[in-house]
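Table 4 source record.
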Amino acid sequence: MASRLMHLAVCRELERVLPIKNANDFRVGQILPDAVLSADKKAVNSHFAKILHNGKRKVFDFAAFYDRYKREIPSEEIYLGYYFHLIEDNLFRKLIYYDLDLLSRRGEPEFLAELYRDYHILNGIIAEKYLIGIDLQIPQGFSDMTLNEIYPFELKDFLADMQNDIAERIPDEPKFFTSEVLKRFIAECVRVCTGEYRGLKCGGPAAGLYEMSYGIM
């Protein structure tokens, strides 16, 4: 899945084209699904993972999230950010597996290690290019939000740990996720999410689950 700084970079670009009123809450929502530190993310399923097509495809079910929180999404931007995160992670998997033709390496420990090294190399580039700093705050009334029924998100520790990403500077070149690929990913996320924003204004998700899914067999 995309790194938290990648999601925040997408936030910065979306804020240029969407009428986001509470940027802090929108950005927190964009990284919140990953704020699971003390449990197995698969067991928690904060990404609403769903298997489709007789076990052959997988998707992060943004439509299920919408159905569950359709009252909150239009008025509370932390929910909108969360919704976009799920869409962006679908786009990330499609980019990695299809555009970069790496589906055959899915699940390989060595591949994951190489990919995570790319994340670390990109952290400093993203922090500087998109002016990502240490200003995110826990939203007011966060502990009472219904989002915590998904999981009691460990947001305080997660935000503190993210400062390591923001401060990271590794003078090396990524192997797979180059700066050009990053640029392409962010542009695609902005394109799709702005379309989804218009769709939500009309009453529901614009993209279909199968369209956003990726093969696992």
